Amino acid sequence: MGRRTRMRFVKRTPDNIYFAGVGESSSNTEQFVILTVAEFEAMRLKHYINLNQKDAAEKMGVSQPTFSRILENAHQKATQALMEGKEIRVYGGNIDYKQGFIGYGCLNCDAEWEDESASKDKKVNCPKCESNKIYYLVREPL
Ligand SMILES: [Zn+2]
Question: What is the pLDDT of residues 57-69, one digit of tens each?
Answer without folding.
Answer: 888 878 899 999 9
